[in-house]
Specification:
With 234 residues, the chain is mainly alpha-helical. The protein has 9 helices and no strands.
């Protein structure tokens, strides 16, 4: 259990750096200036995060997932990677098509960058979290109890990052209901299981934090405006 609890914190930190932190690396990439630094670093994103997802799925050494769970993991991971890769390429190319606004090339690049890739990627993020929740639900740590401190801190961090990801990616039609449904499910059926299920506690806190963020954001701004657009209005 202790190993899994530490992994939730590692996952939350890596997610924050590689998903939310990259847009701030906007300088040109020295070895190949047509790329930005964020594009070069983003090449590492699936290579780092997908293995961490797999370690979380294992729960602990000796608890390997069943074949069907592994197949579902591979499908969701492929969706995650395909969406992330599409976004990486289209976003990078999109910086060079700004001068051709209104053209078919610009429109198609925008669709891949801002619509299709976001929905595929974020559906993978949500799907993997639900798979992890399912596997933890079926495999609690009997006889062990967590203090919930690390899971709570990591969950708050991940919830803020998940919320910002969904808002900036404009995938609220899937991101908001997913978070709310997980919160409702845990409150209804899983409150007594949190201390024996670190992943349940982690994602419950994460999705609760994200749900609160969505509510505050919607009330304050009157819409699910993108965070970078909101900053321009402050």
């Amino acid at each position: 259990m202790a190993r899994l609890i530490r992994l939730t914190l590692v996952f939350a930190l890596l997610f924050a750096v590689l998903i939310i932190g990259l847009p701030f690396l906007s300088s040109q990439f020295g070895p190949y200036p047509l790329m930005k630094t964020q594009d070069a670093v983003d090449l590492l994103t699936p290579l780092v995060l997908i293995p961490v997802y797999w370690l979380l799925l294992q729960l602990e050494p000796g608890r390997s997932p069943r074949q069907v769970e592994t197949i579902i993991f591979l499908i969701l991971a492929a969706l995650w990677v395909e969406g992330q890769g599409m976004h990486l390429a289209a976003n990078s190319i999109g910086h060079l098509t700004e001068a051709f606004t209104g053209s078919d090339a610009a429109a198609l690049t925008y669709f891949y960058d801002e619509v299709l890739s976001h929905y595929m990627w974020h559906a993978g993020v949500i799907g993997l979290s639900l798979l992890l929740l399912y596997r933890q639900w079926k495999n609690p740590f009997e006889g062990l109890r967590s203090g919930l401190g690390t899971e709570t801190g990591a969950g708050i961090l991940h919830g803020l990052n998940y919320g910002l990801m969904v808002l900036e990616g404009e995938t609220t039609p899937i991101g908001v209901p997913a978070a709310a449904l997980v919160v409702i499910f845990v409150l209804a059926l899983g409150r007594g299981r949190l201390r024996q299920q670190p992943l349940l506690a982690f994602f419950f806190v994460a999705y609760l934090t994200a749900t609160i963020l969505f509510l505050i954001w919607r009330v304050y701004w009157g819409s699910f405006i993108e965070p970078f657009d909101a900053l321009k209005l402050i």
